[in-house]
Specification:
This protein has 6 helices and 9 strands; from the N terminus they run ααβββαβαβαββαββ. The chain is an alpha/beta fold and 174 residues long. It has a 5-stranded mixed beta sheet with strand order 1-2-3-4-5, with helices on both faces. The C terminus is likely disordered.
């Protein structure tokens, strides 16, 4: 799990936005909801919303879920989550998903648990969703493996940089 999250973090914020939007689309479809539209908003003018998912259930009820993604090591604060929730309300989203590769501060968790229409998804849950959907993680003989086609090894990613040597998964030598 830690290797998967490290690779995800190393790929950067834009990759994580796209990765998570594809993952959440696959996850929602497994729950028998129809995804009408799913896209990354992108850019610095996105108003705190990184992605949008429009869904419809079997009765025809439609929802617009706003997504915020944070590819970070730092713990996500309650202030961050409150800011995102305000953006969801301002954009008239039906629901909100705040996804982070790290975790949530206890105050952020408490705030999220008080809401009926917004959830937080931490790195552990992202890993579990990826394993369940088979996106970024493959199951081979009952063992989970990272899909290196989607997330190549750090050494492969840095192979074009002549002045960088990967000593181990945590150390780079310049």
């Amino acid at each position: 799990k830690s290797d998967f999250l490290s690779r995800l973090h190393a790929k950067g914020g834009e990759f994580f936005e796209s990765y998570f939007m594809t993952l959440i689309k696959k996850y929602i479809e497994k729950q028998d909801k129809k995804v009408i539209e799913c896209y990354v908003t992108g850019g610095s003018e996105d108003g705190g919303i990184d992605g949008v998912i429009k869904t419809e259930d079997s009765l025809g009820f439609r929802e617009t879920t706003m997504v915020q993604t944070k590819n970070r090591i730092e713990i996500t604060s309650e202030t961050d989550v409150r800011g995102f929730y305000g953006a969801v309300c301002a954009k008239r989203g039906t629901r909100g998903i705040y996804a982070t590769t790290s975790d949530f501060h206890s105050g952020a968790r408490k705030f999220l648990s008080s809401l009926d229409d917004c959830v937080g998804i931490n790195g552990d849950r992202i890993f579990a969703m990826a394993a369940e959907c088979g996106y970024g993680i493959k199951k081979h003989r009952d063992v989970l493996e990272i899909d290196t086609k989607l997330m190549p090894l750090l050494s492969e990613t840095l192979s074009e940089c002549g002045n960088v040597e990967v000593v181990n998964c945590d150390v780079l030598k310049l």
